[in-house]
Amino acid sequence: MDFFKGVSVGANGLNVSHLQFADDTVIFCEAKWSEIFTIKTILRCFEVISGLRISFSKSVVCREGVADVEVDEFAAKLNCLSQKLPLKYLGLPLGASPSRRLTWKPVVEKFKKKLSGWKRRTMAKEIDRIQASFLWSDSEYHRKIYLVSWKETVAKEIDRIQASFLWSDSEYHRKIHLVSWKELYKENIEIEVRDGVRISFWRDPWMGSTNLLSQFPRLFHLVVAKESSLSLQVARRSHQSRWVFNFRRSLRAWEEDELVRLQNFLGSGPVLRSNAVDCLCWKLIQSGVFKVNLTYAWGLVNDGHIQRPVKLIWNNFSPLKAKFFSLLAWKGRLKTKGLLHKLGILVSDDALRCILCHESSESTEHIMIHCPFVWRIWSHFAVWWGFQWATRSSIEDFLLWWMGWKFKKKVNQIWKVLPTVIMWSV
């Protein structure tokens, strides 16, 4: 009925008259008395029909390109307050430049405050899911219009806070990472292409072990849609009968050759399935589903003696914390003085002396087997069991030597638990 016009958004002229969420409403109109009277009438009619009351005292009138005097008159007519942009709506800044980092500072601070209260109950993956769902999606299947690049504004700051939460004692002190992702067989994970919606065309390795960004860095630098999904690129190709890319300038001769190489490399592209969602697959298992026991069995077969100490460490009846401590010792990840010095935490050379013998530098091998004090402990147990032994060069060699001895079942259980118990006690 065109009582008030609202605002026009985007190149297609999308008309937005109001936004609603729960009991909050934002109404857009032009600075005309006729539209103000119309809004006032609609709100009064709503009160009469519903029996509810609108809190005009908590409502505000904001302006854009309108004189302050006129806005104050509008506010007086509506019995509410006047306010300049930007303002907060649902905890997010409304009316400010979304490309400025300062605009998103309150959001980041609120996120930081929430995170400190979650302790260790929150996982980073859940945080990412909430971010994506709340900011960019109406539901699991419908995505909103991107009004701001989350990655360029707040994502890096949020990631920094997450990293600080997961890996640091504070903003200025970082924890020691005891696990390397490469040791978790990252090379054995591959992307299974289905609908292509969740796969980044340039960044994800959906064609082999490397991504297109690594193979064609110059084209990636020049392309406009760097975050384009695989499904979008395939859709463009189906309409144009070839792969189509928008570059920010005309390509030079050698860049044209790179584009031809990319076209040949992509070929006809993957066949997408619209009824299935992209997923990660574990290449070591035929089903593609990651399972700890099968991965462990694969490691024993393929890595041979390298993985054998794992069996000695985990297959005994010592406490779990002692087993994990032995695993860190085997991997050389104990927080010894030598490791702390390597990380720049300890500076003085005098502070690196072994706390037991005060002679050599304190490393994992030294504090566990080479230190004279610890060596006497191992020797005592060796004599007790009737063995003669020589000090090994590394903990791995020592554990392999220990595994070489076999006894009867019950005696063997005691023999297997001794390295873990002694290292934990030391």
Q: Your description of this structure?
A:
With 426 residues, the protein is mainly α. The chain has 17 helices and 10 strands. It has helices spanning 33-50, 68-78, 105-118, 124-136, 150-167, 212-215, 217-222, 230-240, 253-266, 292-303, 308-314, 320-331, 337-342, 364-370, 372-384, 395-403, 409-425; strands spanning 7-9, 14-16, 18-21, 24-27, 60-63, 81-84, 87-89, 92-94, 189-192, 279-282. The strands form 5 sheets. The chain has a two-stranded antiparallel ribbon. Strands 3-4 form a two-stranded antiparallel ribbon. A hairpin with a 2-residue loop joins strand 3 and strand 4 (24-27). Helix 14 packs across helix 15. The protein starts with 6 loop residues before the first strand and ends with a helix.
Label this structure with key terms:
426 residues, mainly alpha, 4 domains, two-stranded antiparallel ribbon, 17 helices, 10 strands, 45% helix, elongated
Question: What's the helix and strand layout?
Answer:
Layout: E1 7-9, E2 14-16, E3 18-21, E4 24-27, H1 33-50, E5 60-63, H2 68-78, E6 81-84, E7 87-89, E8 92-94, H3 105-118, H4 124-136, H5 150-167, E9 189-192, H6 212-215, H7 217-222, H8 230-240, H9 253-266, E10 279-282, H10 292-303, H11 308-314, H12 320-331, H13 337-342, H14 364-370, H15 372-384, H16 395-403, H17 409-425
Parallel strand pairs: 5-6
Antiparallel strand pairs: 1-2, 3-4, 7-8, 9-10
Helix pairs in contact: 3-5, 11-12, 12-17, 14-15
